[in-house]
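Dear colleague,

As promised, here are the two records you asked about, laid out in our usual form so they can be pasted straight into your sheet.

NAME FIELD: protein one
SEQUENCE, THEN STRUCTURE:
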Amino acid sequence: MLILYYIMAFLEGILVMSFELIVARILTPHYGGSIYVLTSVLGITMFSLFLGYLIGAELVKYNNYYLSELFLVIASSCLILLNFISDGLIKITIDLPLILGSVLAVFSLLGLPLIILGAISPMLVETISNLKIKSGEASGKIFGISTLGGISITFILGLVLIPFHGIIKSIYYIGVPSLLISILIYFISNYGSLKSKLLNIAIVTICSIGVLNALKVNENLNSSTFNTIYQSDGLMGRLEVRDKGDNVRFLTNNGSIQSKIAKNSNSSLLLYTHVIGTLGAFVPYIERENALLVGLAGGSIIQELKSLNYKNIVAVDIDRRANHVAREYFGIENDSYVFVEDDGRHFLESQKEKYNLIIIDVSLGEQQPYHLFTEEAFQIYYNRLTDNGLLLVNIIDVTDNTKLKVTNNIGNSMYSQGFTTRLLKDFYPIGMFKPTDVEYHLHERILIGTKNSGNLIRPEFEQLSPCCKQMGFSHSLVNHFEQHTYLKNGVEGEVYVDDLPIMEFDNYKKEQLFRQLKELKN
């Protein structure tokens, strides 16, 4: 029987880490991937295991350690149920404040199974101690084997299952074998009669069906106006490509629009991409050699850069799916750019190439990865930019200029590293959005950084891309650049640094507003 107990310990470690990783990914589309969600997941994980260890220790006192086999069956069942009950539980907590809502959502999904799993370890230690193995040796082996199981599934989930198969399939790939093995171990164990074991399994099954019926939410991904043609769950969120009508195609990540094109021309319907295209024309025509785009999305900015005659375009994105989506669904030609799967900052640190244009476009709804916006990051961008080069930073921030805390602090971080920094004024026409639209309160804000004095060379009209030539805003921006920008050289505020994730805290109110508006609109 000793080998069975070691298998149980290994399986317990697998289930603990599976719950932790999978629940974090399930909550990201609804609560974001900020430090608050990460803290909730880690904190609830440790608290639940703490309660489980105490419960397990109490059960051992009363010689109930034989329950470990049944607990493993229940925990495996809970993992499979995540597919069905997560939407219902999230709907209960989604309207609460971000921190409270995320804590309650995490506890509702993680609490019970991790308490059960935590109780297993003390019972296993007691069980094998009764086999004449010293308690220290028993606890060391149980916790060591459990940890090994957790390590194994962490790499398998993070590097293989979730990136290539998505969250739903990953749950089944782990949950179903775990449940079958747990049931097998339960029935071949020496504790209890066959009748009592069958009764316990029946009770677990009935309870699972009851929970399923109470909380299952049938989500219809396709509405009458949208047709989902691609969907993928991964570590970087849920990617979806949707068509609206005959000629509009969207790319969304966790429900936030990343790209929007007219299918008949593959031309972007998002104004900010054309604004970036117009700004890219301020790099002298003869110097448009190397361009770097950090954050690919559907590749609309690639189209703009090709039209501007940039010869060597590199697109860096940490999510490999973006490359597939851009080429397969958004008409980006294979030879238009070189794709690199990497973090943008790491990529620039690891090579010495200089670029005439660097574009940082990695906003996902209300979130931005803060390590790309610290003064240490801007020092790297500065060193990788040619003397007449241009740095464009696109972020999502509030439309109220008096509350641009994040934008101002990023501008300060740019300025601290030698950039002459300007903020482009709001380029969306007045009245374009309704007060109920997310974009009315939050949308793109573009910072412009140069290494020289900031007096950019005005491009000639014929140097603009074909689509930008037809836009009145592009003409006005080219001819009256200073009137369309604010100088952001050392304004009031802070400088973001690697050591402190201040940007995460500055984003808190913005995240709350974004979630409230998105849920209201949905």
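NAME FIELD: protein two
SEQUENCE, THEN STRUCTURE:
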Amino acid sequence: MNKRGLDIDIEVHGSCSSTREEMAKAFASSGPKGISELGGEFVAVVRSKDEEWIISSPGGIFPYFYTRRDGGIVHGKTVFEVMKRAGYSWSWNWSALGDLLAADYIIGGGTLHSMIERVPPGCILDLRSPGKEIRAHGTWCDSPSRKHASPSVALDIFNEEVRRNAAGRCALSLSGGLDSRAILSSLLRFGARPLLYTMGDAMSTDVRIAREISDMIGLDLEEIRLSPDDYLEDGERIVELTGGAKTARHWHTYIFAKRTGLPRDVPLFVGSNGGFARDTFMDYGMFVRFLNLPARSLQTVYWKWKTKPPFSRREISTGLTQELARELEPSTRKKGMEEMTAGSPKRLLDALQHQFYTLRLRNFIGYGLQMYSEHVAWCSPFLSKKWISEVRGLPHSWMLGSNWHRYCIHSNYPKLMEVVETNYLEPPASRAPFVYRKPRLIKGLPRVPYVDYSKWFADSAMHEYLREEIRNIDDLMDEKLATALLDEHYRRRNRTQALSWMLCMCFLKKVIAAKGA
């Protein structure tokens, strides 16, 4: 080892497959690029006597933040940490706020603060020469997909990733779907006996399926119940951690991880990015392969359908502040959709897989991983770079209907195929049927979510909290509109998305006030 790596401090945010010592060796032999090529999804801050670097993995999934100020770089693990260090007051990024309302996540590399951004993917930033920013070896979308990809090779990569992280005690977040079941099949293949955790009330579909699986294979299962009080108790910390980039109906990740009580030396396996091997429109069967046409207009139609603001045009024009209303105008949203799809493949299904990784994974799921990190050491084999590269080259027939997941489970531990699956409400066959749109019933009961947010946002405590706090978001929306939405939802349970955003903004304004901004 050369002298470069002998005396360095490495601060890791996210999950890296290498130890600090291994990272130091990689830095000593290959410099910052050596760290960027390690497995996992993370941002590393490396300091020595003469050097300081920010290094992000090629996916750029785990959030880390920075701003340029006075010729230098100010950085930190949260937006508010950067804001404090830079001496900023709060300043709204109206474009990002519009994205959050319409798409449920921020699109691109911005944050809700106009001066603060996320560290980009595949980035090596020399903090001693802040004007210079280079890419390590490209992001996932810069590299070509494998021309002769194989589902069995993808399975071998996946299993090895699971085996490497399951050497000692481990735990698994188990739902009724196939992402967590694929991980469980691999753990069982290697003889691991993970602690199982699931969330929801006693009648939720996920809990009932998790019980059946745990009883069948003889593993302990802990059921975590969530309540509206959890959201009111932890909302301020969640918003401080995420910078408001996750609306309230997605806060369960934080609360679930907190309630597991797992020590840091017990990794929690999660299914993040499992959707990369599951095409959009999967429930419509194999005939949707005919939708894989080279037409960007189809992408625009899709995103117009997916990104609808939770307010009517009249509510937008009369009840939202002018800057926010402008971001939700059809012409502004259309321009945003064109920018969003500009770098994507032309064919629809290819583009949606690309956009899942570059948009949803980075800007939605990534913040979920950040919330996990507050309490547990998480790992997801679906984030393996090698696995992503292999799956990306598979034909769509392997992705529609979760066919790769079915293949994985059937190959590793076929007994798990005997238990029903959440999306289809029937035991998953080794291959998906040609058409499987209509769900069936589990023992005469319909699918029950782990959280009924429409009911929760009409809960008396939640309702009263919002009624008291909405006056503090008058720089975003008129108090009369906010009150009207509260009353309408209390009667009809029909404004969940709007109230989810409003609750997030109420807590965000509390954090802003607490930070003296």
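A couple of things worth noting about protein two: The chain is about 45% helix and 10% strand. The longest helix spans residues 348-373.

Best,
R.
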